[in-house]
Amino acid sequence: MRNTGDIRVLPQHIAIIMDGNGRWASKRLLPHNAGHRAGAQNLRKLSEEIEKLGIKYLTVYALSTENWKRPQKEVQGLIKLMHEYFQQYIDDSKKNDMKLTFIGDVSRFEPDLQQKIETLKTLTRGKNGLHVTLAINYGARDELTRAVRRIAEEVKNGLLNPDDINEETLAKRLDGYPTPDPDLLIKAGGEMRLSNFMLWQLAYTEMYFTDILWPDFGIKDLNAALEWFGSRARRYGGR
Ligand code: FPP
Description:
Blueprint: E1 13-17, H1 21-27, H2 32-52, E2 57-61, H3 72-92, E3 99-103, H4 111-124, E4 131-135, H5 140-156, H6 167-171, E5 184-187, E6 206-209, H7 219-230
Parallel strand pairs: 1-2, 1-5, 2-4, 3-4, 5-6
Helix pairs in contact: 1-2, 2-3, 3-4
The structure holds farnesyl diphosphate.
């Protein structure tokens, strides 16, 4: 176990919005995709650190439902990066303890990427290390809309009584179920917004915003976020 200063309470689940890749690249006169590549490398390094700390869940925002509006070249670059990243995890899956799952509507991706996603899920299903969830073609409004559509279909088919619908009914139909809600959200890149990320699941999450651009967000920055989290008194609306 690494020395993490005064941290007494660790989050069970960290969610990260990996923002600032573009600005990281622009500052170096590099194309946007060089920033995403550096961001993906950073994700790999930090997820290993998070696993070493004994934290159980990590969810990261890798591609939003809105990101398709970006220039074609950038979107293609991100998809190529996913291919490479997933392949690396498939190749490493024997020696790796991480479990990989996905949230978002993956049906929009080309069949060979969907195949890689299925392979990764199958190969890592029984793993006991860090459970990494990659949000790809993910948008919280889209996720909630799909969940509501499922509920409506179940009601229509007589499988569900509207009187029995409660918070759990909806929570169970969200993409990441049964992963617990995040305890800590880290957003890199200096902006204070949620960008349509896990709007339901973040209801009681502690939020840590930092100006550091995602590719520069290192282990000491992670420790600073964890120390801040350890100092929070979580009341969940109570006193
Ligand atoms: C936001 O930065 C980041 C994204 C849209 C994509 C995040 C993706 C990665 C870190 C790598 C891909 C991950 C995998 C799993 C392969 P931005 O471009 O909006 O930054 P900016 O605000 O500085 O322009």
